[in-house]
Amino acid sequence: KIVKKIIKKNQKVLDVGCACGHYYRSLKREIKNNFFYTGVDPYKIFLDKAKLVWKNDSNVNFKKGNIFQLPVKNNEFDITVCNNVLLHLPSIEKPLRELIRVTNKTIIFELPKYGY
Fold first, then answer.
1. H or E segment to which residue 13 belongs
2. Fewer beta carbons under 10 A from the terminal one: N or C of the chain?
3. Cα 91 to Cα 15, 67, 68, 85, 88, distances in angstroms
4. What share of the chain is helix, strand, coil (3-state, %, to 5)?
5. pLDDT tens, 91-101?
6. Is 16 exposed, middle or buried (0-12, 13-18, 19+ CB in 10 A)?
7. In this structure, are residues 21 and 54 in contact, taking their beta carbons and an 8 Å threshold?
8. pLDDT digits over 56-72, tens only?
9. Which residues does 36 contact at the CB level (< 8 Å), separation at least 6?
10. Which of 10-14, 26-30, 76-80 has the lowest mean pLDDT?
């Protein structure tokens, strides 16, 4: 819902920790503007499934990588989403710098509503 409010036509969205690309499905359902989606995940098994599911969609791309060294250019994305990733990391300083490096407008985080 947050992305829906701020995204503009033809903007680029990065999903860090995308797994099988399930968040892309939610974005497509909510956003009627054309946009470009790139998902990054460190696990090949998830990316293979995502590529299979979205093979006929020209606005989607998946890359192997991790939040400590994202395989994308500086300021390449208008919006970056990072859902339920930071809580699994031993440190978030370098990952936060990476998210800032690759994003030229907005970064959105989602974390669980419960504590550990």
1. strand 12-16
2. C
3. 19, 11, 10, 11, 9
4. 30, 30, 40
5. 999 999 999 99
6. buried
7. yes
8. 999 999 999 999 999 99
9. 10, 11, 12, 13, 59, 60, 61
10. 26-30
